[in-house]
Amino acid sequence: MEASTDTVNLDAGQAVAAYLEQHETKGLLRFITCGSVDDGKSTLIGRLLYDTKRLFDDQLAALESDSRRHGTQNGEIDYALLVDGLSAEREQGITIDVAYRFFSTEQRKFIVADCPGHEQYTRNMATGASTADVAVVLVDARKGLLTQTRRHSYIVSLLGIRHVLLAVNKMDLVGYDQAVFDDIVGGYRELAAQLGIEHVQAVPLSALRGDNLIERSPQTSWYGGPSVLEYLETVDPRRDQAGTGLRLPVQWVNRPNQDFRGFAGTIAAGTVRPGDSVVALPSGRRSQVARIVTADGDLAHAGAGQAVTLTLTDELDISRGDVIAASAQPPELSDQFAAHLLWMGEHSLLPGRPYWLKIGARTVGATVTEIKHKIDVNTQDRLAAKHLELNEVALCNLHLDQSIPFEAYRDNRALGGFILIDRMSNATVAAGTLEFALRRAGNIHWQHVDVDKAARSASKGQAARCVWFTGLSGSGKSTIANLVDKRLHAMGRHAFVLDGDNVRHGLNKDLGFTDEDRVENIRRVAEVARLMTDAGLIVLVSFISPFRAERRMARELFGEDEFIEVFVDTPLDVAEQRDVKGLYAKARAGKIPNFTGIDSPYEQPETAELVLDTVSQSAEDLAEQVIRKLLD
Ligand SMILES: Nc1ncnc2c1ncn2[C@@H]1O[C@H](COP(=O)(O)OS(=O)(=O)O)[C@@H](OP(=O)(O)O)[C@H]1O
Ligand SMILES: Nc1ncnc2c1ncn2[C@@H]1O[C@H](COP(=O)(O)OP(=O)(O)O)[C@@H](O)[C@H]1O
């Protein structure tokens, strides 16, 4: 049992809990290690685990035989093998996921997130860094500061780690030369100053030989600082929480019976006592703390980091994801932010596309309205950007579909750190940090109008609808929409066609056919279509609208029965044969880049209300089907 608690991967929550319980009374330090593949990171962690005697016989036996088989140390124990746990990692010779490991000394217990050094795994590093208080940044003394060092240090600073141990490793290979060490440390201090990393301790190290790892080494008599372990045992990474009132993000509402209603969570900041005045956010309702309940009985007082259940003196409607805060110092509410994003998605981030934003236990809809600039994490240069790719970092404006209580990430990780989730695949596509609320969020209000959509549709004798035609270029969208429009007109209905070709001459003439421009194109036309249905019209939208995410976004702007998605289902070869405007020929000749169906994707609808087969039925018959659907 012991051995398995020493090495676990990400989601082994039970092992973490068991380990914490076992060492309950000692202080806990969470740290991450980062560095390039060959900097000696795995050796460092392996040796820390080995030398702090947290290894058990069975692991040792495995280690010894593994060292003989795979080791790079001529049959000696290869400490790196302790850490490079997964066979896939061994085969590639790189660490590819975050692994959490535990060890303890007389002074402290430690959880180390072992972060991969390989360039493309920046996102794993961010995962590890988001819970760490200290970062151990490894540098090979022979190579000095590398691009990786800068990238990792940037992420360390972005994720709010203020204490860095700069481990200048492989000092034995440079003859323990102080000048080499000083040179690297000087360079790193400059970088740290730029990044706002306040505390840097540099240690000359040979992880392999154990110099300055556990004990100070006689080989570096010129060095007067602590060993790596001494530093880890003594560093005080506590954040200055002065002046912050209570913040309890509610993880779940505990209601075992009619008489008890408790709000459970981990206190993110501040302290609480029975009798304190509190406010529930976002509702703004106030009450007082009645009891602080824990598994070990009621408390008279609790503070940051403690998991508690609060009961209140009034029956307030508080749900999972709400925040209970000191009523004298509540956090702000906003629905628009400037935020840093680290993009982790396989596909690019496209401004205007809706995602889910999860902050603590709360999930809301969110779009990136603007990429202010992306950041070259190697140089900290700011670069213009229209989209973001895997591992890129940018400052963005975010718009949420509801207001949330928040704090800047640098002040409070729990209330300022979030992830973005793709709505189609449910994959985590970004990690982010809220920087500040955009003032305009609070300054724009909905203007009430007395004549509403129902009144306007009624006066036209119809129900307002949005009929959304989607399909390849040349599939027949315009032809069919036009026939439907004529039929409706003849019936005395009030309809209007919004056609891609036409809208792109005016409102959207600034947009081309890149993915991000198509997203914006559809966002705008969906908003216009909604205004037209507000005016009581039947709107016929005829745009290729190739992406599912934007068609879903459009759908969500309308009421349940108001939106009719019509898939004009014409195979590419048929559309290409028709080639009404000669565009396919041009695209095939390479004269039109990003042409839908050729070198830009078309994602077929999965849940269209109507699918029209233009190969076996005439345009007139298909228009008739649309009319029937509209009027039933
Ligand atoms: N690269 C490329 N890809 C696709 N289409 C192109 C392209 N370049 C120009 N065109 C012409 O623009 C019309 C499509 O505009 P949309 O606004 O409907 O496109 S989209 O919804 O933003 O994808 C489309 O009109 P339709 O044929 O009516 O669909 C084309 O005539
Ligand atoms: N069943 C059909 N439905 C719609 N269009 C058809 C059909 N059969 C042939 N066509 C022809 O295909 C072409 C479709 O062009 P268009 O309506 O401009 O497509 P889109 O607006 O999707 O680009 C027109 O020339 C139309 O006459």
From TrEMBL:
BP terms from Gene Ontology: hydrogen sulfide biosynthetic process; sulfate assimilation
Recorded GO MF terms: adenylylsulfate kinase activity; ATP binding; GTP binding; GTPase activity; sulfate adenylyltransferase (ATP) activity
Keywords: ATP-binding, GTP-binding, Kinase, Multifunctional enzyme, Nucleotide-binding, Nucleotidyltransferase, Phosphoprotein, Transferase
UniProt: GTP binding residues: 35-42, 114-118, 169-172
The keyword RNA-binding belongs to this UniProt entry's keyword annotation: no
Xref: InterPro entries: APS, APS_kinase_dom, CysN_GTP-bd, CysN_II, CysN_NoDQ_III, G_TR_CS, GTP-eEF1A_C, P-loop_NTPase
The enzyme's E.C. designation: 2.7.7.4, 2.7.1.25
Pathway: Sulfur metabolism; hydrogen sulfide biosynthesis; sulfite from sulfate: step 2/3; Sulfur metabolism; hydrogen sulfide biosynthesis; sulfite from sulfate: step 1/3
UniProt xrefs under SUPFAM superfamilies: EF-Tu/eEF-1alpha/eIF2-gamma C-terminal domain, P-loop containing nucleoside triphosphate hydrolases, Translation proteins
EC main group: transferase
Domain of life: Bacteria
Domain Tr-type G: 26-241
Active site: 545
Membrane-spanning parts: none
Catalytic activity: adenosine 5'-phosphosulfate + ATP = 3'-phosphoadenylyl sulfate + ADP + H(+); sulfate + ATP + H(+) = adenosine 5'-phosphosulfate + diphosphate
Similarity comment: In the N-terminal section; belongs to the TRAFAC class translation factor GTPase superfamily. Classic translation factor GTPase family. CysN/NodQ subfamily.
NCBIfam families in UniProt: apsK (TIGR00455), CysN (TIGR02034), PRK03846.1 (NF003013), PRK05124.1 (NF003478), PRK05506.1 (NF004035)
Record PANTHER family: TRANSLATION FACTOR
Subunit and interaction comment: Heterodimer composed of CysD, the smaller subunit, and CysN.
Biological role stated in the UniProt entry: APS kinase catalyzes the synthesis of activated sulfate.
Protein name, per record: Multifunctional fusion protein
Species assigned in the record: Marilutibacter maris
